[in-house]
Specification:
7 helices; 189 residues; de novo design (two linked rop proteins); mainly alpha; transmembrane helix
Length: 189
């Protein structure tokens, strides 16, 4: 075999390997991006389910605690903020507000023993707890997908392919901010 043929074969093999690496990296990035989008979709489904439960829960409490107008307004505002959130950061901020408002709502319910014994209220409360658990699981799945995608985007050689094809790092869905963890919700009656 002539040296020219050997160089041509080596060049073709190297090009095929490079094309294979690019295709593999691109497909891996697409898979991770789709997992993140699927996980975000799961979160939005659970958030929607929760926002649908909240009016019934508020109405149950209103029947017993009609003078707690401020608490009901905060819950309504927080619910509206979740429904209108456009980004992961906005959703996380709205989640913090809703969590605080719901804590206040449940604190109000503690002052009304007949409400705590109401079967409808108890069922709604249990459904809300179940939905919160599902949101937490969906958030962990989403954040795991974001971690994997961001790691792949930032590591060599996929960072080159990610840059070539416009893959962007995703934002984690962190609900708790330092202020809400360090300063718990204050309930006033």
């Amino acid at each position: 075999m002539s040296p020219l043929v050997i160089v041509l074969i080596v060049t073709v093999v190297v090009l095929l390997v490079l094309v294979g690496v690019v295709i593999g990296a691109y497909n891996g990035l697409v898979v991770l991006r789709n997992r993140v989008e699927e996980a975000w979709s799961d979160i939005t489904v659970q958030l929607k389910r929760r926002t649908d439960l909240i009016p019934n829960l508020v109405n149950s409490v209103k029947g017993y605690a009609t003078h707690e107008k401020e608490v009901f307004e905060k819950v309504a505002e927080a619910r509206s903020a979740i429904m209108n959130a456009g980004s992961v950061a906005e959703t996380a901020k709205a989640e913090n507000a809703l969590e605080g408002a719901l804590k206040s709502l449940f604190a109000v319910s503690e002052a009304y023993p007949e409400l705590k014994a109401n079967q409808n209220f108890l069922q709604l409360q249990q459904e809300l707890v179940d939905t919160e658990d599902k949101i937490q699981a969906a958030r962990r799945f989403y954040n795991g997908g974001v971690r994997d995608l961001n790691t792949k985007i930032q590591t060599f050689p996929t960072n080159i392919i990610a840059g070539m094809f416009g893959f962007q790092a995703k934002e984690f869905f962190d609900v708790e901010d330092r202020a809400s963890v360090e300063n718990p919700v204050e309930v006033k009656f």
